[in-house]
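[stage:ingest] chain + small molecule (fe (ii) ion)
[stage:ingest] validated
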Amino acid sequence: MSSPVKFLTSLGQVMATMGLYNPGHPARERVLDESFQELQDLLADTERLKFSFIGGDVVHERRVVRELKDWDWATRLAGVGIERLEIDTTVTREDYEQFLHDTFQRSRGEAMDTAEVRHMRATGIRYGTLALDTGESLEATEATLATATIAYSLRDDVEAIQWMHNHVQSTGELPLLEAETVVRSLAIAMHSQSEIILPLLQLKEFDQYTTTHSTNVSVLAMAIGEYLGFSGRELRVLGVSGLLHDLGKVKIPREILIKPGGFTDEEFTIMKAHPKEGAKLILDRDVRLEVPAVVAYEHHIMLNGGGYPAFHFVRDTHYASRLVHVCDVYDALCTHRPYRDAWTSEKALSYLEEKSGTDFDPVFSLPFIKMMRARQVQRLSVENPEVTESGAAGQDGGWVEKK
Ligand SMILES: [Fe+2]
Ligand SMILES: [Fe+2]
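[stage:predict] done
[stage:export] tokens:
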């Protein structure tokens, strides 16, 4: 049994005991001691523990804890607004007991504090809802809330990305600062209306494919990262990885890129070089961009080792590659192609579901499906990419198409 499992199991035991025994009772003190010891053991290896509780699943750091599939406290904690839980090394036994006591009371509907987010940084325990989690401080959470109703346009972002692609094409150099700035801006756009509306671009001319697709994959990668409780820094790395995953396409002749029908063998070989070309362009610019470079290289590799480029031996790809792979395929399927109509969001999600475990890593594809079914997508035209408030549910599983 891994220690996160032991710790959370013990946490559930304390909760159960709290219903039966008052503070100070030896039975209650003993399980509390044991649980606090489990917590200390876990904190010996890390400065801060992070758990998320999503739809009955427990996510520890970035992994779904499968052993806790039937642990009903995951649902109960989420039910009282604790969708994420962070504990750092400064936590004391008293803090821990207080947190459990408060949570137990909330679970019985006896909460004194009805605030949606309770901040207990001073005590080493923080918890709240996932939607508000930026992985940073509460101040960052408040900043997110403050921007939640501003109108926002993706126009500048679209222009910046078009400029970035042209710049890479003509100079062979990636303008790193601009790429990072675009990602920060997209992160704001993601929160510009309500948490539930996700702004994505809609393709009109196939020439714009790399721009719209890169934007969308960046937004989707940050959205799923945020949903899973990743930290602010990790989210930016995911955003940059999504934005740059197809960068290698700037090296592919335009006539091949925009070709309406199928490729010849030779064309397909050229096309399949874009992951390697992209990784090279990114690494040439800055070795610190290791993760986006790895993602560019690996984003067409499937969970079962299929796809391209072929590895000499089967090995796991980076988690960010597996995450971006899900977003990449979703956006590609929902995009109109000369040879087929755009799939509806629901059809694309069903496809991801069907291929989870073979093509896609379920650790990312399943929460992605859950998240996309819960959110509305606002499809914005490249010419007029204003995020508006008219984000009412559309016909297709919450899609809103803006003309
Ligand atoms: Fe690609
Ligand atoms: Fe792609």
